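Dissemination and training. As part of the outreach component of the grant, students in the summer workshop were shown how a complex can be specified as a set of sequence lines and then modelled as a single object. The example used during the hands-on session is reproduced here so that future cohorts can follow it. Participants entered these lines:
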Amino acid sequence: MTAQRIPWTLIVFLVAATVPWLGSRYDTFLAEQVAIDALFAVSLNLLLGTTGLVSFGHVAYFGVGAYVCGILMKTYNLPFIVAFPAAGIGAAIFALISGYFCVRLIKLYFAMLTLAFSQIVWAIVYKWNDVTGGDQGLPEIPFPNLDWMSSIPGLGDLRTSDQFYLLALAVIAICLAIMHRIIRSPFGRVLTTIRDNPERAAFIGINVRAYQLAAFVVAGGFAGFAGALYGIFSRGVFADYVFWSKSAEVIIMAILGGMDFFWGPPVGALALVWLNQQVTDLTQYWPFVLGTILLILLFGFPGGIVGGLHALWMKKRGAARA
Amino acid sequence: MAGSLLFSQFMGGFTTAMFLFLIASGLSLVFGVMRVINFAHGSFYMLGAYLAWQGMTWFQPLFGSFWLAALFAASGVALLGAVVERLFFRSLYGREELYQLLFTYALVLILGDAAKFLWGTNQLTVSTPPALSGGIQMFGTTQPLYNLFVMAVGPAIAFFGWLVLNRTGVGRMVRAAQMDREMLDALGANVGTIYTGMFVFSAFLAGLSGALVTPIQSIVPGMDVLIIVQAFIVVVIGGMGSFWGTFWGAVIYGQVLSFGILVFPSFSLFSVFALMAVILIVRPWGLFGRPLL
Amino acid sequence: MRSWIKLAPLFVVPMLWPLTAGASDPIKIGFPIPLSGPTAVYGEPVLKGAEMAVAEVNAKGGVLGRKLQLLSRDSKASADEAVRLSRELIIKDNVDFLVGTLTSAEAPAVSTVAKENKIVFIAPTSKSTLLTDPQHIHPYIFRVSSNTDVEGLAGATEMAQFKDVKTVATIAPDYAYGRDSIAAFAKALKKLRPDIQIVDEQWPKLGEPDFTAFITAQMSKKPDAVYCSLFAGDFVTFAKQAAPRGYFKAINNRLVDGGEVGTPDEAQALGADYPYGIIADAYDPVIWGANEPPAHKTFIADLNAFAKTKYASGWSVVGYQSIYALAEGIKKAGNTKSDGVSKALEGLTFDTPVGQRTFSVKSHETFAPEYWGVMVKDPNYPFAIIKDPQMLPASFPMN
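and obtained this result:
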């Protein structure tokens, strides 16, 4: 019982915030990657876990966000405070347009169309040299102006990249809190109803398509935020960021962590980044290891890490009760 | 002048189309019967190419080494398909489609690295079989003999496939399974064997097309990913599960690619995905397919 | 009192330890390079050349008493991957310098990482001018290879010798190097032969598996000759697809390629399918014929022994040169701080098996010439070789 009263979320974020001091530059690098991936994965799970929509093209919105923010900050020298929301809005608009067509299709066709749109974004980004840098990409995305951070005690001595890490962490925390709210809200409950039985939902008068589209737009917008942060984090935006293999990667994160739980995808992101680091140190055959992990997941632990832990906890609780 | 260019581009597009038809037909068949999209189909194609190369190095001194190697490759991949289906896929039927898709994606990762491990990461090439090297003059252009051969093989297999599907008992079972598998099962047919058979045949086709493509294209890591996307587009255009749909889808796609660089040099990459999107929006079940139930 | 004296060394040694540790710490060089995919046929020998240079330097005692250590990674010829690896090499592995990348997609991207982290980065092979143009130059980027302006002049010189050619077509991969090389060629050709017109341009993407549509479109324009910037695996695929269509026959093998397809690496990859009669270049022709510099002979012998090959690669020399250039820079600077090494490298002249090279002060590049000639069959070798390799361009203004 008391486990639920402990503010786990707050603790996690506070611990994450101490990394620049406690860990090496590389640890901060990894932590930032996990945090951004977590945001991206949670946005996908709004579609996958909550609404039951399998999207293969979620990276499109990530990419749109990354490029919008990158282009506005690098080419037009706009400040972060303008570019960042613009990235989310741009991604959301694209999600609205593409989603309108996608939600009219069922299951497999929906998945195929999301993939098609995602590859269209990739093709445009790849060829539109003047704006997106084409295959060269957009290197040297500037950091946002973080001078204001120096006035906060204790933060003045940090490297710029560490300061940005803290900013990103704060932004991600806010985004996750908003998404958590959304999922817990009546709107979110309608989405799960649609996931469980779309025909019944339609029967009781829910406009299934409208709700699905809304979920699509929200998910797309937050993916765009993740993309914007990623562009600054990696100091560049490249066409490969929008390739469909990244969509597959984020689906794996969500499932690895457990798509039935809000904190599943972030756990999946952490696990995947950590595993990737450990494995690539030992061998170049990371895809093989990832494929094997996926197999183990599918055949052994379909609920993912959090799902498995939850089941274990429920068993213990049941045993305690008995 | 313009006539010979049009002819060249058309023939080039048709060659591409026939290769894609060979590959995509397997994908479409599996989908029609098993309602599953096999991402690993591209990996089967790639393994077919690598096995053909391997076969060439082993059978080099023998007469007809290329054909032996191609048969060896296709059979090898078919065997792999049988193993995959029996050991793994079986347990996923009836589970959520997402899991089946992810399983095939896991296969892509595993098989891709297996190929790298076995054959290295360099680009490999295979020479054209001597019987089919050289070209024929046609309408002011030189058409490579080997390409003409491929252009003939495509429709030949299509016709053979149509024959089997529509004129044999086995074909009738397959068509029935496509329409209503529960009923077929209730009627006592061994649906499991049909599934395995379909999967193995589809793997054979993929392996064969991989082997046949080696004189024309280089074998390189990543060819599995490149081809599966194209195969998808073909199947979407033609209609998933429809044999002739795949054929015409391949033809259309091949020509779009071929003429695309003439009309839209910078946009051919974009145009094929746009085409896929348009078909999915306007007529998701493709030109010849049936709406999914 | 006496016990203290006995114990004194126990205190002194740990105090001195950090000094000895510094002296034996290797100088770490991060080396991202494509080791898979169509460009690996060039990438792997570049790494081998670098490895041999490191082995030679270390055998002579290293640089400033410290050994060199190469940390190589597969960049897959992707800008994205190269950037990610470079940052990891800097942040996680704490490399002192970066050497590597193959293509002009990777090098400019890694250059920005080098600039941001203030680490010297030497690019052995990237030719695109945007790597070192005034907009992108910074203290830490250096280029050992030729650049597209030099290549374009050499290529145009070769093309200009065909007196009866009036129309030329071009085919190049659609990315920075391809675009720059064609632009440079066109500009140089205009000066040398204003009567020649460029009638067709084809732009397949890097790594294109099927060139058929580009080949047939180009053939329909019936050019007299072709300038080609396809290289590595792409050229192999292209040649195999073009030959049966009569592409080379139609232009009488008058194809000039500046992408180093004259190297034994490329010739062996194509084997009997090599389009003999075309004009190609190489940083190192390997098989020189007469006038071979003695230093080169030794280099090739050593390379064959090190790499356990029968016929040496024409690409290893650039990896080799880059390491030696870096070593010279460190020696001259007297330390391994990138700021000092960068200043030392500017204007530095260093020896290579194919001649002396100097880093220009303004743009940090060597404007290296390459060796050009017709590709012929030679009974002594199982692959095409350059006949009478000539150094081109004869001269190029340094800045």
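Chain C touches chain B through 34 residues (CB under 8 Å). Students were then asked to discuss how this feature might be tested experimentally.
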